[in-house]
Each structure stands twice: as structure tokens, then as C-alpha cells.
Amino acid sequence: MTPSPSTPRRVTVLDLASARAVRRPLSMVTAYDWPTGRLADEAGVDCVLVGDSVAMVVAGRSSTIPATLDQMIYHGEIVSRAVSRAMVVVDLPFPLQHLGVRTAVKAAARVLKETGCQAVKLEGTAGQADVIAGIVGAGIPVMGHVGLRPQAVHQLGGYRMQRDEERLLADARAAADAGAFAVVLECIPRTVAAAITADLPVPTIGIGAGPECDGQVLVMHDLVGLSPDRVPKFVRGYADAKATIADALARWRKDVEQRAFPGPGETLG
Ligand code: KIV
């Protein structure tokens, strides 16, 4: 089917590669629902990530580990319907990438078929290269994710900077060699991120990894000031949505209590 002329053209893996070639920085932000998916798309970002961070920022869990495949599909389908131009990437939740190539391909295929997204992201070390290759072999674009892997938070001893340069380079290289079209670098030293970015043939997208990455990703709730907890040091808050919403709710409650709401123009009939 040919898209109608009014349908914006979707960002593809080729666009991300071209952006890297001309050194145009890439932007990716998380979204988990229809209104924020639309806002992200309208802001012109390259990619919208339906991250398993949904478990923390939306469901209030203390890690991303509880996110399930069905939950990722639920949120992924909503966001995919809201986004018409950006590439939608959906996280494979723990522990699917550790259960063998067949299981991971089946899960990634479900995500692609049932959400309408364009790619999956998976956290992993060089040990998951065969899984990336298997999913890519099925025609499903994969974004790798190395460095601080929140799904491995207990093994890593907390949400901390990862500094083993040799290992980080090997993990990122293995993801790219296995066919990943881009690799997220989370919480690693700037110099290491720069070295990986120079080494890889595909774009790197950093979060807490410095400005030399090919792109940047942030959790939307951190970026707009809606996260309930303290945000990491690498976040820049561009709005104070929590204060705006709290103020609106407090003023509305007061108006209700003082019978100032609803007013004459807000009453039907
Ligand atoms: O789940 C998520 O939001 C992520 C980003 C922090 C990269 O993986």
C-alpha cells in the first residue's frame, strides 16, 4: 500500500545511518502512552523508545526487572498508534534475551507483530550476540544496550557508572557485529563512549555517556520533571511538570471546595 501524501515518512534504520554519516546528532526519548507518544513525535525526535523503564516511572516499581512481555506489548501498541513519523523501538523485557535465540526471536516477533513498532532494543553483553544475530536474521531491527544494564542492577551492585573499557568496547562491538543498527551506551565514562563511537560502524546513543555519542536518549519523565524520585545527575530538566500538575490539582480542589467550579459557562443545560 502506498502511504498517502499527507502521511509523514517514517524514520528508518537507513535514516539513522545517514544521520551518523553527516554527524547529525540523533534524539530518542521514552514514551509509554498515547499523549506522550504524540508529543514526542510532534517534537520531531528520531526515535521514541517504549522502555522497560515503564515499570519504574509509570508503575512505581523499584527496578525495570518486573516489566513483562505483555506489558511491553500493551504500551508499545499504544505508542505505535500515536507515533506516525519517528521510529518506535520497544524494549525486550528481562530475561527474554537470556533464554536462547529461539525464545528471543519469538518474543521479538510478537513485539513487532502486536505493537506495530519498527525495532526492538535489548540489554546485553557480548554473550547475547547470538541472540541479536538471530533476531536480526528474522528481519527485525535490533538496538543494542550496553554499559549500565538496569536489568542486571543486582549483579552490577546498583545503578552505577560502568568503567571496564575493554569489556565495554567488546560488548558494543559484539552488538554491532551481530547486526544491531544502533547501540545505547548507558552510564559510561565520556572517553570510553567516545572511543566506542569512533570504533563502531553504527550510531551510538548515549545516556550518561557524554556528548561524543552519535545521539542522546532520556527518560521523558526525567526530562519534563515528572519523575517522583531524584533524577540522575546526567539529566537536564526542561520543565517542571510535577509542579505544574500539583498546582493545577490544588487550585481545582480549592475551587470545588469554594463552589467556584463549575462556573456558569462550564455547566451543561
Ligand atoms: O528503559 C529505558 O527507558 C531505557 C533507556 C534509559 C535507554 O532503556
Care to describe what's here?
This protein is of the alpha/beta class. The protein has two domains: 13-238, Phosphoenolpyruvate-binding domains (TIM Barrel); 240-269, no CATH class. It has eleven helices and eight strands. An eight-stranded parallel β-barrel has the order 1-2-3-4-5-6-7-8, surrounded by seven helices. Strand 6, helix 9 and strand 7 (204-207) form a beta-alpha-beta unit. The mean pLDDT is 96. The structure holds 3-methyl-2-oxobutanoic acid. Residues 30, 49, 51-53, 64, 91, 145, 184, 207, 217, 219 line the site of 3-methyl-2-oxobutanoic acid (KIV).
C-alpha end-to-end distance: 47 Å
Number of helices: 11
Number of domains: 2
What string gives the helices and strands in order? HEHEHHEHEHEHHEHEEHH
Helix content: 40-55%
Portion in beta strands: 5-15%
Could you say what the CATH architecture of the largest domain is? Alpha-Beta Barrel
Task: Give average pLDDT, whole number.
Answer: 96
Chart the SSEs and their pairings.
Blueprint: H1 13-21, E1 26-30, H2 34-42, E2 47-50, H3 54-57, H4 69-82, E3 87-91, H5 101-115, E4 119-123, H6 129-137, E5 142-147, H7 153-156, H8 165-177, E6 182-186, H9 190-199, E7 204-207, E8 215-218, H10 220-223, H11 241-257
Parallel strand pairs: 1-2, 1-8, 2-3, 3-4, 4-5, 5-6, 6-7, 7-8
Helix pairs in contact: 2-4, 4-5, 5-6, 8-9
Residues 30, 49, 51-53, 64, 91, 145, 184, 207, 217, 219 line the site of 3-methyl-2-oxobutanoic acid.
